[in-house]
Amino acid sequence: MTSSISAWIWSERFWLPENVSWADLEHPPPGMEYPRMGHILYALPLAVGVFLLRLIFERLVAKPCAHILQIQAGVPRRAQPNAVLERLYQSKACPDTRQLEGLSKQLDWDVRKIQRWFRIRRNQDRPSMQKKFCESMWRFTFYLGIFIYAIRHLWVSPWMWDTKICWDNYPFQPLSPGQYNHYVAELAFYWSLMFSQFTDIKRKDFIIMLVHHLATIILITFSYANNMLRAGTLTMCVHDASDIFLEAAKLANYAKYQRLCDGLFVVFSIIFFLTRLVIYPFWIVNSVLFESWEIVGPYQAWWLFNGLLLVLQTLHIIWFYLITRIAIKAIFKGKVSKDDRSDVESSSDEEIYSSCSKNPSQTLKTKDSSHTGNFNGETHDH
Q1: Can you tell me the distance from the alpha carbon of 6 to that of 360, in angstroms, rounded to the nearest whole number?
Q2: 184 and 43, same structural domain?
Q3: Residue in 64, 58, 59, 124 with CA at minimum distance from that of residue 89
Q4: How many domains is the chain built from?
Q5: In sequence order, which residues have a C-beta less than 8 Å from that of residue 217 and are 6 or more positions away?
Q6: Each residue of 15-68: pLDDT tens digit?
Q7: pTM of full prediction above 0.85
Q8: Which domain holds residue 88?
Q9: Which ranges constitute the DSSP H helices of the chain?
Q10: Cβ–Cβ under 8 Å, residues 264 and 245
Q11: 220/290 same-domain check
């Protein structure tokens, strides 16, 4: 039963071009090695190591840096314990007018007092600036390190300058140590993000990021098994380039270096546009979609890979729309506005009441009263 399921999952007719079998890839010429699925499985235990390394890094490196920059964790004021309000808060953080009036009668509290309780309670769950700083510093460090490693190997690779070489003698292309290390490191990192996504600061595009991480993990895993390493390493390198400047902009923002933050955000926006809306679709996707069709020819898995690449491109367009909104706000406000993806933060009682009354079904949109108009969220991608 198990062997039949495995044979169905790893069907040669699905994963490999015509007249190529898994047995052909198991016996490379002397001195060469082809990718094997068993190799990439090391990324799973390594992902746990990456997650633990992140915890150590945040504690021993990021937090001391935050203290040097005078970014404090902050201890939010705690709401008065109340079982009735707490029960409602767990299901709805912003009660509507009818619910407020009902609570007022039930508890014999003034409506304003109940509104204030919910504001303080929301602040308890609001992540501190120091936590945000530590998360961003970890991602900045990884993206910078892996990008330098990738560009160092790709710079001397002929397929970086002529993408048609990605398909020369495909799939019988040798695996280099640089390609293997790059793949395992990226896959372990994205698996660690899958683990930590449920404990990190939760933002409005949680579902989009979940889809992004799943699509990325599937692409990395199966492109390795299918020996699309040349196009795969190019894709990962292009994605990491803009993320470096995004995380750097957020670090500058959390440290309250507003001009540096604005400058880095401009650089990030330009690089994001060039890498993900120009280079990625017109260079990499064009190669996988059209050049591979001419040289190798389509097969069943080929359609899957191209579909996933187009999913990523759709996400790039959505994110660039959000980036454009921030840029437009910056033109009128003179500095980078708060990211539309940022975590929900508190405001004054008047703003809360006004927001909830106008549209009780929506999540409260507010501003950070202590750091108004800053770039508090993130616009990923990995």
Answers
A1: 50
A2: yes
A3: 124
A4: 2
A5: 187, 190, 191, 194
A6: 888 888 888 888 888 888 999 888 888 998 999 999 999 999 999 999 999 999
A7: no
A8: 83-125
A9: 2-9, 12-15, 22-26, 37-40, 43-57, 63-68, 83-91, 97-107, 111-125, 129-154, 177-196, 206-225, 229-254, 258-274, 286, 292-295, 300-333, 349-358
A10: yes
A11: yes
